[in-house]
Amino acid sequence: MRLVLAGTLLLSICLTGGCAKFWYQEGKTFTQCRRDLASCYAEASRYSDTDRTGGLGRYESKFVADCMQTKGYALVPEKTLPVRVKRESSPVFGIPGVAGTID
User: Fold this and answer.
1) For residue range 68-87, what is the model confidence (pLDDT) as tens digits?
2) Other CB atoms closer than 10 Å to residue 83's CB: what's the count?
3) Do residues 47 and 67 make contact, with C-beta atoms less than 8 angstroms apart?
4) Tens digit of pLDDT for each residue in 41-62?
5) Closest CA to 36 of 73, 82, 62, 75
6) Does the residue 43 lie in any domain?
């Protein structure tokens, strides 16, 4: 019971404290960022057996992070994003979202 309570508390602190991170590159539009992230996911799936495993694991996540960094993106905490950028959180907790200027 204590473990569940501690986990719930940590999650609520993270969500209200702005722990969410976003792939962001100054000067890139939101659409460009989404497209680049999709491209990195597609590339990662070429090197992995995601059909069998049912999703991305540690290797694929590292691959995607390396791919996005190679494209010039950085993982930015939500609280440090510029005010005038569109943001989209990932539906999966712990997976970064995307952010960019409005198209």
Assistant:
1) 999 999 999 999 999 999 99
2) 4
3) no
4) 999 888 876 566 566 678 888 9
5) 73
6) yes
